[in-house]
Amino acid sequence: MATLEHSIERAIALAVAAFEALDRDCFKASKIFVNDVLPQLSASPEWVSEFEARTYYRCLSTEYEPLSVAGSLAAGGRFNVGGSQAGGISKKVIGPLASMRGAIYLSESWQTAAVEKYQGVAEPETIFTILRADSSVTVYEISLQRRKKLKLVDYERASRAIESAFPSVRTLLATTANMSGEWSDLKRPAPCQLLGHWLVNSLEADGIRYESVLYPEHFNVCLHLKDDLTAKKLLKAKAHATMP
Amino acid sequence: MLEAIQDNLGLFTNPAMNVVNGLVLQKLALDAGYDSVKSFTKEIGISRTQSYREFRVTGVIRDRLLVLLRIHRNAQRLYSSEPDAPIRWLTAPNGRFYNLSPFMMALSGRGKTVYELQEELLGNT
Hints:
heterodimer; A: 244 residues; alpha+beta; 5-stranded mixed β-sheet; 3-stranded antiparallel β-sheet; 9 helices; 8 strands; globular; B: 125 residues; mainly alpha; two-stranded antiparallel ribbon; 8 helices; 2 strands
């Protein structure tokens, strides 16, 4: 009996070690990215486009506020560092790019928002079917308050250009290429998060437009926003009434 | 409810859910990525003979196995197209969870992340 407990504990230790290894790999890649790659890079204005105001979508459990950056500040996301990753040691080693930054992640269709939220635990068609019938999850339509345009970095264009100049960047970014959730488990910044900060800072953009990994040919937008007040000044939200 | 949970995987062999079917656990571990019975038993430090028997479990291990069953029960609702789909999902590397299978997420004590997401979608929370 004790042997089985010991045995399963060993299996648990292996899984925990896998998480820790990923965290270490990410941080190692981030240090290379910041120290060796970024000093040689210059951001091109050609990577930025102005996008006309349109409706975006965000899928949330009804208990959450649609224009809150709290989740991204706490856990971080693909293109922003959150509290989970912004430990003291990270800032010392990585520099100011390791600072926490709020963000709101939006999608260009409600289906993409739904797949982004629940991918990994159900197939897209199942997710759509449940959301059409279920009331515990709300799809919000998010639009601009007053501004007519958003200045967004085209991530595909930027990463193609960067990778063609520095082929090693592809490997660095690949440490989290397929990771599309649970950023809070990462305890140190990932290269894609630092790249997100660097792109938005360098090009004075509102955010980044990028293709969904799990719902290809559909697009998402990560808007960097200081806090909830800034988010509410820029955006407005209403529940999406129909999901055909 | 208890019976339904036990029926999910056949993992527990008594109503108190503190005796585990070692063979089922072994099969799950193999499905979750171990190369062979030998490598699985070697990796987790039990003999092959032991892996074919029933074992008593308590404490944190039992809790994690219960989480595993909870995740599987949810998966049965979310992957209902084919009978094998839930178990395939349970044991497959999953990009959402750093390419760990939900099985390993449960055993590593991170199963809450999986079932909360499932249950939010299913409207159980």
